[in-house]
Amino acid sequence: MNVLETPLVGVLVIEPRVFEDQRGFFLETYQQTRFSEAGIDIAFVQDNWSHSTRGTLRGLHYQLSRPQAKLVQVVTGSVFDVAVDLRRESPSFGQWYGTTLSQENHRQLLIPRGCAHGFLVTSDSADFQYKCSDIYHPESERTLLWNDPDIGIEWPLQCDPILSAKDRAGLPLARAECFETTGPGVPGDA
Q1: If 0-12 CB within 10 Å is exposed, 13-18 middle and 19+ buried, where does residue 190 land?
Q2: How do the domains of the chain map onto residue ranges?
Q3: Is the pLDDT at 170 greater than 90, yes or no?
Q4: So what's the pLDDT on residue 25?
Q5: Residue 82: CB atoms within 10 Å
Q6: Of 106, 130, 136, 137, which one is the catalytic site residue?
Q7: Whether residue 61 lies in the annotated active site
Q8: Closest CA to 134 of 36, 41, 65, 31
Q9: pLDDT tens, 7-31?
Q10: Which of 76, 159, 160 has its CA nearest to residue 125?
């Protein structure tokens, strides 16, 4: 696999090796030894799958007291995937990174603990799978406002996105609860 750094500390694009022939393709979506050899030592404990229609925007989500690292990928369709750094001590605090994940490019995005995550479906529909380093903990879940002008995410929108009530009510960065340190047991998986 090929691991590419992004402008956000610890946010990585992963390009798995794809074996293709006339039958189709095969790839490893996760292999602990290979990830460890690449310096990614995260224990994943939960897998999730969501199916969404074109124009659905999910996020920007994070868990405050039980932060999750996520390894995300698209199985069918395409999305514009975004991470926002919420680690106050990080040199990339308050910055965002976005990339297209699709069934064609097979790319994955690794989002470390301490970042908010969201995506916009850019195909007719998309199946999105991801691994998490901690279980879902609704009491500590927070939502960052998807269109906060202080962050300035350049979503590739064709019209108003389809949002949940929770995502419409997200807080701007100036009012959001963020991660204060990157010490042991706190965000900053790298």
Answers
A1: middle
A2: 2-18+27-175
A3: yes
A4: 76
A5: 26
A6: 130
A7: yes
A8: 65
A9: 999 999 999 888 888 988 787 888 8
A10: 76
> How many whole angstroms separate alpha carbon 91 and alpha carbon 88?
8
Q: Could you tell me which of 38, 62, 158, 46 has the C-alpha nearest to residue 118?
A: 62
Tell me the pLDDT band of 128, cut-offs 50, 70 and 90: very high
Q: Give me the catalytic one of 61, 62, 97, 117.
A: 61
Q: What is the pLDDT of residues 49-71, one digit of tens each?
A: 999 999 999 999 999 999 999 99
SS3 category, 168: helix
Mention the CATH class of domain 2-18+27-175.
mainly beta
CA gap 146, 58 in Å, rounded: 9
Can you tell me which residue has the tokens 């990830």?
A: 35
Q: Let me know if 136 is a catalytic residue.
A: no
Tell me the Cα Rg of the chain.
16
